[in-house]
């Protein structure tokens, strides 16, 4: 209960005690009637100069009271009025006494109430504070026993305190903060109405995560139809969102940019009575550049709350997988006297050397594969085929992470072509293949998300847009074809599998020169084991361990040669795929050059074999000619133009010669 209400009750109790002490020396001052009653003539004086007894009491009709409850209250008042003495003092004293006793009992309960400690032995959600109806809904959703984060966070949130929580990815933190909000809203003495506006806001970094949280909230609210959940996010029509906000959304899931837009420009967006603010994936919000927007959102919410109900303080909940300076700053700005779960605001969970140590699910198997540049696509598709075959029922769900949108498009197209190829049909059986990246429209991204979730056996090529927070059901394998830049990114990528105690397997592709990256991961407590590349090639290569150490010998492996030839043919025969390959090649090099400075020595674009990189995208031409015209006629014409340009340059001043030289030889 609210601190202000308790302070007010204590203050009134002290005043009443002082009044009793002075009662014998002087008459007690007249006291006000409770707010729910009024009378026609409470202070009318007669000829004697003293106050006359009050007239008959009548109830003030609140807008939310029903006719039946008012009728019952009037009957009760008739009985009370019949007992009022001549001056009405007995009734008023009795009513005020009951009023103060209730306030004192509430204050006493608030003072004695302690935060329920973590119940490690909790076997169900009733044990952590949720009621049976909500526990049954969670049971129907497949949550039989609360996870550690749910055991720790749910009692704290129900206590009304601000909470700062850390949890390993895939541990059920969405249920940990949504379920107590559901319970607190449904248990209000007055039913929640759409006319009250938004009472809870959940801010997430990506649109897909907003949809996912909205789905969870919708299922939890299904039996409490009077509470309306909703979502707003970039990519949707603002006018439609404005109409929904005008009708009223009680629990709103949103991305920061669109929320700030509506707070600034949508007059009908009512947040003056906001009770709960949740910042999910706070570290990702900071990393994606939303820090300024989140700060503005909090300022606007504080400003608008001054016009609303001030009887209760807004409760803020922040969840983050990691703690760095940006998250710590946001926590100190947005949280009030928080209770921490997993770490504190000062970031004391970090090791002395500054490296955060991450907790990985015990059921997650992690591997790395040292793959020469030329072998990368072959090993990728052989690994995909192996993952599908490893499932006894043939149902596997694989997520492949690459560094850029163009690579997603290229590999998605190649896999579809390999699945349709007669030569490789025995290895690459047709599978549902999906792609997800930031260049897709919001409608396309939403459709891909739901289709991949529904599929029982599929593969998804994606960028890091899908690395944080998204809960894809039953993902069995994670393949990081392009290594992540930070250890935190690695954690969130592999976190798409081995969720909620299910098993999972993760593979990381590394070039031989990138081997030191394994030590970087181990410095963060991430243990990965090596998988030998030869196991994906022919039986002769698998049996010859010495051959595995000779890269040139691996290039002569028949499995590699046959599959590489197929990929070359697919790229050469289709102008569309060839263009995709050229775009992916250039985007890959740009992404490789943008690795963080701390690991630049490991991922150094200058030591890449550019020709082998081109081969890995199925491009036969020289790197310098990728993206340029390749026909003889166009090549001769281009060469002739160069000769004419150089001839003209001899007659120009030196500065113009230099400019023309750069135009000819240094431009693509």
UniProtKB/TrEMBL annotation:
Region (Disordered): 1-79, 628-656
Motif mapping: Q motif: 123-151
Catalytic activity annotation: ATP + H2O = ADP + phosphate + H(+)
Annotated ranges, domain Helicase ATP-binding: 154-341
Compositional bias per record (Basic residues), positions renumbered to this chain: 637-656
GO molecular function, one term: RNA helicase activity
Function: RNA helicase.
Name of the protein: ATP-dependent RNA helicase
Organism per entry: Chloropicon primus
């Amino acid at each position: 209960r609210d601190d202000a209400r308790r302070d007010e009750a204590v203050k009134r109790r002290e005043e009443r005690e002082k009044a009793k002490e002075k009662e014998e020396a002087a008459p007690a001052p007249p006291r006000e009637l409770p707010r729910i009653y009024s009378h026609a003539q409470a202070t009318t004086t007669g000829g004697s100069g003293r106050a006359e007894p009050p007239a008959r009491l009548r109830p003030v009709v609140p807008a939310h009271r029903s006719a039946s409850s008012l009728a019952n209250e009037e009957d009760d008042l008739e009985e009370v009025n019949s007992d009022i003495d001549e001056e009405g003092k007995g009734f008023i004293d009795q009513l005020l006494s009951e009023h103060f006793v209730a306030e004192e009992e509430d204050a006493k309960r608030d003072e004695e109430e302690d935060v329920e400690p973590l119940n490690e032995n909790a076997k169900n959600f009733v044990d952590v504070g949720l009621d049976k109806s909500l526990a049954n809904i969670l049971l129907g959703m497949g949550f039989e026993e609360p996870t550690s984060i749910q055991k720790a966070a749910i009692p704290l949130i129900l206590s009304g305190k601000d909470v700062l929580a850390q949890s390993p990815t895939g541990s059920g933190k969405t249920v940990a903060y949504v379920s107590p909000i559901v319970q607190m809203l449904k248990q209000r003495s007055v039913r929640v109405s759409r006319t009250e506006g938004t009472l809870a806001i959940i801010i997430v970094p990506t649109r897909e995560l907003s949809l996912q949280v909205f789905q969870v909230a919708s299922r939890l609210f299904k039996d409490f139809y009077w509470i309306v959940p909703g979502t707003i996010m970039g990519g949707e029509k603002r006018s439609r969102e404005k109409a929904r906000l005008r009708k009223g959304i009680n629990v709103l899931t949103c991305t920061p940019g669109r929320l700030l837009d509506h707070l600034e420009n949508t007059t009908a967006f009512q947040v003056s009575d906001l009770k709960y603010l949740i910042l999910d994936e706070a570290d990702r919000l900071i990393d994606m550049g939303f820090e300024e927007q989140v700060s503005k959102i909090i300022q606007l919410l504080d400003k608008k709350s001054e016009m609303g109900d001030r009887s209760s303080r807004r409760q803020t909940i922040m969840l983050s997988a990691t703690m760095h300076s940006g998250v710590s700053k946001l926590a100190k700005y947005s949280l009030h006297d928080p209770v921490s779960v997993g770490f504190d605001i000062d970031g004391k969970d970090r090791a002395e050397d500054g490296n955060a140590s991450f907790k990985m699910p015990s059921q997650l198997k992690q591997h790395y594969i040292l793959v020469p540049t030329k072998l990368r696509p072959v090993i990728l598709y052989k690994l995909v085929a192996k993952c599908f075959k490893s499932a006894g029922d043939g149902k596997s769900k694989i997520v492949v992470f690459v560094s850029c949108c163009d690579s997603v498009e290229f590999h998605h197209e190649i896999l579809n072509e390999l699945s349709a190829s007669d030569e490789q049909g025995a290895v690459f059986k047709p599978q549902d293949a999906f792609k997800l990246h930031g260049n897709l429209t919001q409608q396309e991204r939403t459709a891909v998300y739901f289709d991949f979730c529904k599929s029982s056996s599929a593969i998804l090529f994606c960028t890091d847009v899908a690395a944080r927070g998204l809960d894809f059901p039953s993902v069995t394998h994670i393949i990081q074809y392009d290594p992540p830049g930070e250890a935190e990114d690695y954690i969130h990528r592999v976190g798409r599998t081995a969720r909620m105690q299910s098993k999972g397997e993760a593979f990381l592709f590394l070039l031989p020169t990138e081997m030191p990256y394994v030590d970087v991961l181990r410095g963060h407590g991430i243990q990965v084991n090596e998988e030998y590349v030869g196991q994906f090639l022919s039986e002769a290569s698998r049996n010859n361990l010495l051959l595995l150490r000779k890269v040139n010998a691996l290039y002569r492996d028949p499995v590699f040669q046959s599959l590489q030839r197929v990929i070359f043919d697919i790229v050469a025969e289709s102008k569309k795929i060839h263009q995709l390959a050229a775009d992916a090649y250039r985007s890959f090099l740009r992404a490789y050059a943008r690795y963080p400075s701390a690991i630049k020595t490991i991922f150094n674009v200058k030591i890449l074999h550019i020709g082998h990189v081109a081969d890995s995208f199925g491009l036969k031409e020289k790197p310098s000619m990728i993206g340029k015209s390749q026909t003889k006629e166009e090549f001769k014409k281009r060469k002739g133009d160069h000769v004419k340009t150089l001839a003209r340059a001899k007659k120009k001043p030196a500065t113009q010669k230099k400019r023309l030289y750069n135009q000819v030889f240094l431009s693509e």
